[in-house]
Amino acid sequence: MKKMLMTAYALLALFGLALLVWIIPANTEDAGYGLSPALLPNVLATLILLFSLVLLWQTWRSCNIEEPTILPRHLIRLAAFSVILFGAFPLMEFIGFLPGAAVTLLLLQLMCGQRSIPWLLGVSLGLSTAVWAAMVYVMQVPLP
After folding, report:
1. What is the pLDDT of residues 54-72, one digit of tens each?
2. Distance (Å, rounded) from C-alpha 23 to C-alpha 18?
3. pTM (2 d.p.)
4. Shortest CA distance to 101 belongs to which of 133, 75, 71, 69?
5. How far apart are CA 24 and CA 86, in angstroms?
């Protein structure tokens, strides 16, 4: 198990490095507005690289790693999470970005166990409004 995890983390680190060195520079070009289109992909690729190196280090230092047990409820939660995420884009096309994103965030929070109504509404409405405002007013990208 330890060998498999180390191999997976090493491959993930190589992927992050390939993103930074080759894939992102080859596939981004300046769009003419404030921020470089490569900024966010570079930040995320750097995080992938750093976190995979940390996990590789932790796995190498650990003595025993227990065999993980995948229960049916884990697969059901994974399927529900996937359905919510894959359904978000058609939902946003159908009812618009703001209500679609708010409903998606609300469902994800409920699935993760959040039950406080102020938190549910604050996160779903606040975050979707902040992303919408950033896209429309700052980056001047129209959303559905």
Report:
1. 999 998 888 676 667 778 9
2. 6
3. 0.60
4. 133
5. 25
